[in-house]
Amino acid sequence: VQLQASGGGLVQPGGSLRLSCEASGFTFSNYWMYWFRQVPGKRLEWVSHISPRSDTRYYADSVKGRFTISRDNAENTLYLQMNSLKPEDTALYYCARDSRGELRGQGTLVTVSS
Predict the structure, then answer these.
(1) Whole-angstrom Cα distance, residue 58 to residue 64?
(2) Which band of pLDDT confidence, cut at 50, 70 and 90, is reported for residue 86?
(3) CA 114: distance to chain centroid?
(4) 23-43: buried (b, 16+ CB within 10 Å) or exposed (e) per residue?
(5) Do residues 22 and 3 lie in contact, with contact meaning Cβ atoms separated by under 8 Å?
(6) If we measure between CA atoms, which residue out of 88, 95, 104 comes closest to residue 20?
(7) Could you report the per-residue pLDDT of 44-78, keeping only the tens digit for each?
(8) How far apart are CA 101 and CA 33, in angstroms?
(9) Do residues 97 and 31 make contact, with C-beta atoms less than 8 angstroms apart?
(10) How far is CA 52 from CA 34, 39, 70, 110, in A?
């Protein structure tokens, strides 16, 4: 299982970013996929997950209405569109294949600051 997140960066409060996660080494279209985030020194936090056919999506209350998870099974890619970003969204963001975040790749850093 290989998962590579990208798309992070520095953005001002209220701004937007789109994260991507390229998956390989498994049949991507068969799995629910997850986004997690982690602030250094704190526990891993679940953000969102999506069903294999994109017909079911769940979001943490802290991001609901601002973030949108999606996927392209033809491209083996998972996305997270993040709008109306807040300083408290600052974290390392990971994509994962399991609900505990144990099967995750390298993260991408999102910094929300003015």
Answers:
(1) 9
(2) very high
(3) 22
(4) beeeebeebebbbbbbeeeee
(5) yes
(6) 95
(7) 999 999 999 999 999 999 999 999 999 999 999 99
(8) 10
(9) yes
(10) 11, 28, 10, 26
CA distances from 69 to 41, 42, 47 (A): 26, 23, 9
The first and second tokens of residue 81, run together, are 């569109």
Beta-carbon contacts of 11 under 8 Å, excluding residues fewer than 6 positions away, are: 17, 85, 110, 111, 112
Q: How far apart are the first and last CA of the chain?
A: 37
Which segments of 14-56 are extended strands (E)? 17-24, 33-38, 45-50
Query: Would you say 50 and 69 are in contact if contact means Cβ atoms under 8 Å apart?
Result: yes
Tell the burial category of 4 from Cβ atoms under 10 Å away from its Cβ (0-12, 13-18, 19+): middle
Residue 87 has what pLDDT? 97
